[in-house]
Amino acid sequence: MIAAEPPPVALPTGPNAPEVSVPAFVVPVVLLGALLHASWNTIAKSGPKKFFNSVLICVGSAVISILLLPFVEPPAPESWPFIGVSVCLQIAYYSLIAAAYEAGDMSLAYPLMRGVSPLLVAVASGPLIGELLSLTGWLGVLLICTGVMAMAIDAGRRSLPNGKAIGYALLNAGVIASYTLVDGVGVRLSGSPLGYTMWDCILAAVPLGAYALWRHRGDLLRYARGREHLALVGGAATLGSYALALYAMTLAPVAMVAALRETSILFGAGLSYLVLKERVGWQRMTACAVLLCGVAAIRLA
């Protein structure tokens, strides 16, 4: 069996809880997770069928999780209701992201939903789970959200505004914030961040894979042939990314981890430039600088 994971820190909660800060080593842990998150998103964007790529990556993460489950501590029983709610919210996430991409440009919808969600987590984490941010923590969250939103505005200049797509994206931001808060509480109860993440991946892959086979069985199976490496590499990246984020949530405020994780869009811009040869203009460079200032503020919080 894999060596036991370190026990989660019991962060203070409740209306009278003191402000909590981020341990120094948590920032690079979350940034590594953000890099992995950007990597699997780049893999998903690189092929001709982006939805099929997402399905393969999701299933790949589930296959890897199933293979590793015998060597990982299972989540504590009290965390299973949170896993169930999280899976339902992730099904809603995939449904809304598909609707948003069908209604409008991905380059506008994706940064919009990812940029708004950390702000929603920061606003809700105080009254819902009793986590209070310091002024520096709030500054970091706001700077990161501003940087991500600036990228959305820059992308929006190159695409036609679509109220329907924007509506789906904002609704999905609420879903992302919801499953972030649910998982933030659930993983602290689990006693096993890695086990919690693996079961999350397995149970989320079942309905997504079933839906894809129901709607696109022939096309999906033909597309999957010869792309097993994409499923495994992308699956490992998404599993590692979320496991690192959930582990960090056992040590630091959920809102700060959620904001730091959205720096994946910064790594995504770099990977898009290097791998996909996408142009990076001065507006995007400025947005990246704002994001980095947000990371620095959270590091100092």
From TrEMBL:
Organism: Hartmannibacter diazotrophicus
Coiled coil: none
Membrane topology: Multi-pass membrane protein
InterPro entries: EamA_dom, EmrE-like, Small_drug/metabolite_transptr
Family of this protein: Belongs to the drug/metabolite transporter (DMT) superfamily. Small multidrug resistance (SMR) (TC 2.A.7.1) family.
Primary localization: membrane
Pfam families: EamA (PF00892)
Highest rank taxon of the organism: Bacteria
Keywords of the record: Cell inner membrane, Cell membrane, Lipid A biosynthesis, Lipid biosynthesis, Lipid metabolism, Lipopolysaccharide biosynthesis, Membrane, Transmembrane, Transmembrane helix, Transport
Transmembrane segments: 20-39, 51-70, 82-101, 108-129, 135-153, 165-182, 194-214, 230-249, 255-276
Domain (EamA): residue spans on this chain: 28-151, 165-298
Protein name from the UniProt record: Phosphonate utilization associated putative membrane protein
Cellular localization per UniProt: Cell membrane
